[in-house]
Amino acid sequence: MLYFASTSSNLDDLQAHPGVGVMTGPRCGGLGSIKGLQRPWASDCDALSKDGYSDDAYIAHLERLGGLHATCRFVVVPDMPGDGEGTLAAFYAYAPLLAPLGFPLAYCLQDGAETQELPRCDVAFLGGTDDWREAHGAWLLERARDEGLRTHVGRVNSARRVVHLSFCHADSCDGTYVAFSGVERGIRTIGSWLTAAARPKLFEAGDISAMQLSVDRVRSLRGARRQGARTRGTPGQAPEMPGLWTPGNLVFPEPVVLTEPLPWPADAAS
Fold first, then answer.
1. Where is the region Disordered (predicted)?
2. 22, 34 Cβ separation under 8 angstroms
3. Are the C-beta atoms of residues 72 and 103 closer than 8 Å to each other?
4. Is the pTM of this model over 0.90?
5. Nearest C-alpha neighbor of 5 from the set 184, 195, 244
6. 237: which residues sit within 8 A by CB, 6+ positions away?
7. How many H-runs (helices) and E-runs (strands) does the chain carry?
8. CATH number among 3.40.50.2300, 3.30.1330.130, 3.20.20.60, 3.40.50.720, domain 2-207
9. Rounded (10°) angle between helices 130-146 and 215-226
10. How far apart are CA 246 and CA 161, in angstroms?
11. DSSP string, 204-257
């Protein structure tokens, strides 16, 4: 798995983990972290920025990245956060304009994408509101992989989420962790997340099958957790929250059958 960090610092100088790349955007000042390096990069369109999306700014940004196609994983086609129907319409409007630039195109999965077609693209980018993507995200990633697309997940800012994504069909992710942790510390920490996610596991993404949950169910579980005993400072077990980040929305397609008995130490107590 790759992690795209939002930084203009030189990742090689920081001795970053080889799986750390760069997430850039129209309002990114420098490209020193991309030019001259062989690290992968991707570009957002800044639909979630405080200033909003700008056609002119985005096209100018992508044009200055010309010649860096070999290390580009994707550029995001403008989307409408939280609106799957609007995002699909925006994709069909903007994709023909961006395709001639020669970069792989990413389609953002927003709320409602679970009932829509996946348009012709190179990467399925999981966005959406928190409750919605916990309900449908793992299933959508699996669906995109089955259709031959590469997959990406946005807003990933913790070790827990990176490790849990290693059980889903996610090729890459990104986040703003370095913005509040500091670049040097943040890059080191992200490297440790990737190392942990790459460790051997009993089950891999291909061994399990994702299911969808009701968004209302996810919301109720969130509410139950907020009201749980642990949040009141008394002993107790907080309720589980199945979703994209937990095993609750994963179904084992077949039971595991042991073909040989497990080894048992000769001196083990009876």
1. 222-246
2. yes
3. yes
4. no
5. 184
6. 228, 229, 230
7. 7, 10
8. 3.20.20.60
9. 130
10. 9
11. -GGG-EE----HHHHHHHHHHHHTSGGGGTSS--PPP--BTTBGGGEE-SS---
Instruction: State how far the Cα of 208 lies from the Cα of 210, in Å rounded to an integer.
Output: 7
Domain locations in the chain as residue ranges: 2-207, 210-251
The rounded radius of gyration (Å) of the Cα atoms in the chain is: 20
Residue by residue, pLDDT tens for the chain (270 residues) are 999 999 999 999 999 999 999 999 998 877 878 988 899 999 999 988 778 889 999 999 999 999 999 999 999 999 999 999 999 999 999 999 999 999 999 999 999 999 999 999 999 999 999 999 999 999 999 999 999 999 999 999 999 999 999 999 999 999 999 999 999 999 999 999 999 999 998 888 888 888 898 999 888 887 765 555 444 433 344 344 444 545 445 554 555 455 555 555 555 444
Q: The tokens of 97 are what?
A: 């304009």
- Which of 65, 94, 97 is CA-nearest to residue 79? 94
Name the H helices within the chain: 55-64, 84-98, 130-146, 159-165, 177-181, 183-197, 215-226
Tokens of 62: 């992508």
Place of tokens 């196609």: 69
